[in-house]
Specification:
The chain is α+β, with helices and mostly antiparallel strands. The chain is 15% helix and 33% strand. The chain binds iron/sulfur cluster.
């Protein structure tokens, strides 16, 4: 930082704010405190045994209490650690630790990610929008619909092209949307040619104003496989309506093996294999993620020569058990709706019971293979190799990360496993996320680590960091990483 009249310059990111005394910079993370640039938030230290979190302990002061936070039990996270951008000097905290008697080192930093994104899994079969459709926040493009997964719709948000490759509003809104999602806040997203969905990590999605409750038990074919035996003897035919595969028990392999008799049913759709039909409808917000509100729409005429008869009973049910209807064929082989018999109600309830709660899952994905490695080691590629070889364990705010195989250090982390408010931003725009690299001390020295910058927790408490003046003691979410 350099002095300029009464303002001083923050060099923690390329924006290089000049900050007046008592003011914060553009990202609200750094302030001018009586002529010194300080990180506004204390560094978060997680403890497995601390009973009550949230206690602030000033560094370099008498309030540090070794009884409250024991080094063997504490983990210094990157949350509030500060950055040293560009990374020409050692990371803010390089902490010596003892793990089960072994000498370990944790390199703690707060990293700025221009290359980052958010992967969102939304547990619903309802149609959110076509694959590849643009996802918008406040009217700005912030991502796209990607390939659906089993029982879930997937969005890919952020990324360098939306952050810095488009207009300024696009970059600003993309950054703000990702930041809100990563910090556990709700964000309203609209999908071109599809729905409006409110997404919040760990909460149920709200699709076009309606909160989703259940994730489907499986596709229509899987549902037949799971429950065919329990329907036998209670009903003559079962159709499980699903946008992916609609199942028909009398034709399905599971039904054949169990001895279900042909019923002369005709399903409109593209037959895949016996008892499994694709495209019975367009995708939508109706039964099983189709547009259907009246399930009889997907049935053709019943064939008396193939088993249809007056009195034949039919259960039609969606893959969540939320929608169901029971019919009896009349003399003209027309299905007539009847109340669901008591003994079949239990089978529908069983589908319902086997559905998991519908949730939104938000994974932050970033690339830590760039210059921040210089804050860890003088030979950056050795850190990459050490992480790829699992000698170095990567965590974000104490949460375990999945590191992609291949080049670089490209990782993903479940944002609900970090303490709330762990993410920040800079107006370049880019997201800021905490990172910790933990490895044996010997290995750290061998890969060219900044050995002279290693400090114990007591030493850190006594002297603080370049920007950091306090620690915040928190209980470890879920007990441990
Ligand atoms: S945006 Fe924040 S980190 Fe960047 S220079 Fe300004 S105060 Fe420092």
């Amino acid at each position: 930082m350099t002095q300029d009249r009464e303002k001083i310059r923050c060099d923690a990111c390329p924006v290089m704010c000049y900050i007046a005394p008592g003011q914060t910079g553009a990202c609200d993370r750094y302030a001018n405190d009586r002529g010194r640039i300080v990180r506004c938030d204390p560094v978060t230290i997680l403890s497995k045994t601390l009973e009550q979190g949230g206690r602030i302990v000033p560094f370099a002061g008498p309030a540090w209490d070794g009884e409250v936070i024991r080094p063997a039990d504490a983990f210094v996270t990157g949350i509030g650690a500060g950055t040293t951008y560009p990374d020409y000097k050692p990371a803010p905290f390089i902490v010596s630790t003892q793990v089960e008697g072994a000498d370990m080192v944790t390199v703690v930093t707060e990293a700025i990610f221009s290359y980052c994104g958010v992967k969102v899994k939304i547990d619903t079969d309802r149609f959110l929008g076509p694959e590849g459709a643009v996802v918008r926040a406040e009217g700005e493009p912030v991502g796209h619909v990607t390939t659906a997964e089993y029982g879930s719709q997937m969005l890919s948000l952020g990324g360098v092209h939306h952050l810095t490759g488009g207009t300024k509003p696009e970059g600003r809104v993309t950054c703000a949307s990702m930041l809100a999602l990563c910090n556990g806040e709700a964000v309203t997203l609209t999908i071109d040619g599809g729905s409006t969905v409110i997404v919040q990590a760990g909460r149920a999605p709200v699709v076009d104003g309606k909160e989703e409750h259940r994730m489907r038990v499986g596709c229509g074919s899987a549902t037949i496989g799971m429950f065919a035996a329990q329907w036998q003897g209670l009903v003559d035919e079962v159709v499980v309506v699903d946008d992916h595969i609609t199942g028909v028990v009398s034709e399905h392999q599971a039904g054949k093996v169990l001895g279900w008799q042909p019923t002369g049913i005709k399903v409109k759709g593209h037959k895949s294999t016996p008892g499994r039909y694709f495209r019975v409808s367009e995708p939508g917000l109706g039964w099983g993620g189709t547009r259907i509100t009246d399930p009889l729409e997907i049935l053709g005429p019943w064939d008396g020569k193939r088993g249809a008869r007056a009195g034949l009973t039919l259960l039609m049910v969606s893959t969540t058990g939320e929608e169901y209807a029971y019919y009896v064929l009349d003399e003209a082989l027309q299905p007539v709706r009847q109340p669901l018999p008591e003994n079949l109600q239990a089978t529908v309830r069983l589908i319902d019971e086997n559905c998991e709660p519908s949730l939104c899952t938000v994974l932050f994905m970033g690339g830590a293979g760039g210059s921040l490695r210089a804050g860890v080691t003088k030979n950056p590629v050795r850190l990459t190799r050490s992480v790829q070889g699992r000698e170095t364990r990567l965590t974000a705010g104490g949460a375990p990360c999945y590191v992609w195989p291949g080049g670089g250090i490209t990782f993903m982390v479940d944002v609900t496993r970090l303490p709330r408010g762990a993410f920040g931003y800079v107006p370049t725009p880019a997201l800021v996320a905490p990172l910790e690299f933990t490895l044996p001390r010997d290995a750290y020295v061998a890969l060219g680590g900044h050995e002279g910058a290693i400090r114990s927790l007591d030493e850190i408490a006594a002297t603080g960091g370049e920007y950091t003046v306090a620690g915040k003691l928190e209980t470890w979410p879920g007990g441990e990483a």
